[in-house]
Design a protein that fits this description.
By secondary structure, this protein is of the alpha/beta class. Helix content is 41%, strand content 18%. Strands 1, 2, 3, 4, 5 and 6 form a six-stranded mixed β-sheet that branches. The longest helix has 18 residues, at 143-160. The chain is globular, with a radius of gyration of 17 Å.
């Protein structure tokens, strides 16, 4: 069944000359994913929204869906909701760009491959997967997150990641790492442009 909102959006695009067919959805707690989403929207001139279960269906109106979420204990925040509604949102045949924002090294094959597997981003031709360097400030963590963070850095990372990856994540977590940069989005932008 074709989404009537998509037809309305296509008609509006034709009338206004709007050629953007990309939406950025971000999900996180501390603003890192949101900052990346704002930069991406600015650079691409596209639409965007913060994750909201009630409005997530809007992704069905776009050819390119970019999901940016914070990596927490190996999972990209709320990405599972997108997968649970994959068929409802008609995502088959759309270009999906999944971006995890984390403390690991985006150049580490073992780190990236683990996150790709854990987050259901393998085996589908329409999914591109990226890791963006994140940021953490221990003093800004909410009470529940502080205890989860403490458990993670006192050994939880070693149960999930390879030793070199875990060492780096823990060192960054302990030292209030901030690796955020607009340039980290360049591979995402290049890939979107290739497919348009």
């Amino acid at each position: 069944m074709k989404n009537p909102n998509r037809t309305a959006r296509e008609n509006r695009r034709a009338e206004t000359g709007d050629s953007s067919d990309t939406i950025v959805v971000c999900s996180g707690k501390y603003g890192t994913a949101l900052q990346y989403a704002k930069w991406l929207m600015e650079m691409l001139g596209c639409d965007g929204m913060e994750y909201d279960k009630k409005n997530l269906g809007y992704v069905s109106m776009y050819k390119n869906v970019v999901y940016i979420g914070a990596v927490r204990n190996g999972d990209i925040h709320m990405l599972n909701m997108l997968w649970q509604n994959y068929n409802n949102f008609g995502l088959d045949g759309r270009n999906l760009y999944i971006c995890g924002v984390g403390l690991g090294d985006p150049e580490s094959r073992s780190y990236v491959d683990l996150l790709r597997r854990r987050n259901g981003c393998e085996g589908q031709d329409n999914i591109d997967f990226f890791i963006l360097p994140g940021r953490v400030k221990k003093e800004r963590l909410k009470l529940l997150d502080r205890s989860l963070f403490k458990d993670f850095i006192t050994g939880g990372a070693y149960g999930m990641y390879e030793k070199d990856d875990a060492d780096l994540i823990m060192q960054r977590a302990e030292n209030n790492y901030d690796g955020m940069s607009k340039e980290a989005l360049d591979p995402v932008i290049r890939r979107i442009m290739e497919l348009n």
